[in-house]
């Protein structure tokens, strides 16, 4: 059996391969593939638009044409169902003593939509299966969400508090959507929000 | 390509295959392999000592010779680093308002030992990777630990409370030992216990 992806086509030797391809019909998708690979290889921090362009074999300007920043490239290539920066901003906006409730509600809303649940489950699975994906996701989410939220909270130990919130939310997702342990799986959303809100609030400001 | 596991060996037709093998040098290991397969195929509830014996090609009495119950077979075949029933009993034994602290301490102790961490990480990975392993583990842990603890607690919504405790503990394990998110990874054990104790206590009795 030959692998069509690695076997040269009939015209492979007819001319020199262009080093930088111009924008083709699926250039955007190819840039996202290259970004996914680069984030996994280098992590989020060490990845640059230029490195993604090099991996995709296109000019950096073309990457900028499709994506306004490394952050957007991360969010799209990792197939996040929402922009986590928008969620964070919405959760921070409002009375400080209800932040746990807003967070529980927002987190469950993403997971309860069909598309969101499918994407988040795939992300959780690939984070557990691959140390490289775990590193990319850990670095990306830390820089896009956890650090800005920690700064905005303005409490002692903010980074520890925010990462403890992550333990509760990730564990909820694991138990409700992956391990499917009862009665958490069948629990009404409102009951889950009621139970999680004070715990998240305690982690953040208690 | 032929698969050596399904291709008959050269002597396959020379004599009748024994239906029930007597105890050989690694009978115990073979019973554990058969148990692992049976728990994954049928789940914990529907698995019996007899089904495991059948899968291993030995007499049920031989399984009973090595393992005193289906529960022990589960704990050993799933390579749990500790007997979770003992942990549960120790956590329940003592003042009710310090149960969260005893639980946080006991859970982290298991994960902090080198052997425990290696085993628990492997379990977490295989639960996420396989729906069958997830079902076996979910059913087994529910019957061995969660249900008895729920009964012992004697509070309203005990089962929901105990499964919410599971969300916090599984999330802590994910973040500290698999995703390795700072500052939870480097946090002192005592600090983690101090942060988790009130949250676990709230889930259980708050």
How many domains of chain A, as an integer? 2
The CATH architecture category of the largest domain in chain A equals Orthogonal Bundle
Instruction: Give helix and strand order of chain A, one letter per element, not per position.
Output: HHHHHHHHHH
Number of strands of chain A: 0
CA radius of gyration of chain A:
20 Å
Shape of chain A: globular
Q: How much strand of chain A?
A: under 5%
First-to-last CA distance of chain A:
61 Å
Poorly predicted residue ranges of chain A: 1-18
Structural class of chain A: mainly alpha
Rounded average pLDDT of chain A: 89
**Total helical elements of chain A:** 10
Q: CATH homologous superfamily of the largest domain in chain A - what is it?
A: Tetracycline Repressor, domain 2
The CATH C-level class name of the largest domain in chain A: Mainly Alpha
Quick one: biggest sheet of chain A? none
Oligomer: homodimer
Relative helix content of chain A: 55-70%
Q: What fold name goes in the CATH topology slot of the largest domain in chain A? A: Tetracycline Repressor, domain 2
Largest interface, with counts of residues having CB < 8 Å to the other chain, equals: A-B, 40 and 40 residues
Protein name (chains A, B): TetR/AcrR family transcriptional regulator
Organism (chains A, B): Kribbella antibiotica
DNA-binding region (chains A, B): 48-67
Domain HTH tetR-type (chains A, B): 25-85
């Amino acid at each position: 059996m030959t692998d069509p992806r690695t076997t040269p086509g009939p015209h492979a030797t007819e001319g020199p391969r262009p080093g930088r391809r111009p924008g083709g019909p699926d250039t955007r998708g190819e840039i996202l593939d290259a970004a996914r690979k680069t984030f996994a290889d280098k992590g989020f921090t060490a990845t640059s638009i230029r490195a993604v362009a090099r991996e995709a074999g296109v000019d950096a300007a073309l990457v900028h044409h499709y994506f306004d920043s490394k952050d957007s490239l991360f969010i799209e290539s990792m197939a996040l169902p929402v922009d986590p920066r928008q969620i964070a901003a919405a959760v921070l906006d409002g009375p400080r003593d209800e932040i746990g409730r807003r967070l529980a509600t927002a987190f469950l809303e993403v997971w309860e939509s069909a598309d969101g649940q499918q994407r988040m489950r795939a992300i959780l699975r690939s984070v557990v299966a691959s140390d490289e994906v775990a590193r990319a996701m850990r670095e990306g989410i830390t820089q896009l969400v956890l650090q800005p939220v920690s700064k905005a909270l303005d409490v002692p130990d903010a980074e520890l508090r925010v990462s403890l919130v992550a333990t509760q939310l990730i564990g909820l997702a694991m138990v409700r959507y992956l391990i499917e342990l009862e009665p958490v799986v069948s629990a009404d959303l409102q009951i889950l929000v009621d139970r999680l809100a004070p715990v998240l609030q305690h982690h953040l400001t208690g």
